[in-house]
Amino acid sequence: MDPMYSGGTSNQTTDLNWTDQVSQLLGDWHRRVYAAQSAHYASADLFRKLNYAVGVPTIVFASIVGTAIFAGLEKDTPRAFAIAAASIIAAVLAGLQTFLRFSERAIQHATAADWYSAIRREIEQILHLPVKCRGTAKDCLDEVRKEMNRASQDAPELSVRFWRREAKRFGVKERLQMP
Fold first, then answer.
1. pLDDT tens-digit profile of 23-72?
2. Under 8 Å between Cβ of 127 and 22
3. Which of 6, 13, 29, 99 is the most exposed place for a label (fewest CB within 10 A)?
């Protein structure tokens, strides 16, 4: 058993109900919020990169079109077709950037990751305190559970790929859901 998640001897835990099962549950929650934190930070990084990958070409193509318009165009020349293509690409990229909201989504995932990080630190603090300083197990679990629920309700949805990767990395065991 991981010493971080062990609850101490039964003599210490009797009064406050800090059993090994309670400490193991907190350990499981710790792994879950750590995995969620990491997955949200990874999502935020992806959306930041996508924002630049779409935003920079949008600026480049829009600049080309704007410059070409001032330079004047002759009809039916290769240059006119290239400028028309650049104009279409710029419009499509600008539309995608607006519709997909990469920057906004990156901020939402970073905020969720920060929230999960705070919950993770709270659990670590609880687990490192002497049992007699933790308060009752039920009160502690209730507070952490409520905070985890609030974070998951307000967080943007994670991709299955990011979640599975981080859950595996942190040893999160998924419970089978019955239909």
1. 999 999 999 999 999 999 999 999 999 999 998 888 888 877 776 665 66
2. no
3. 99
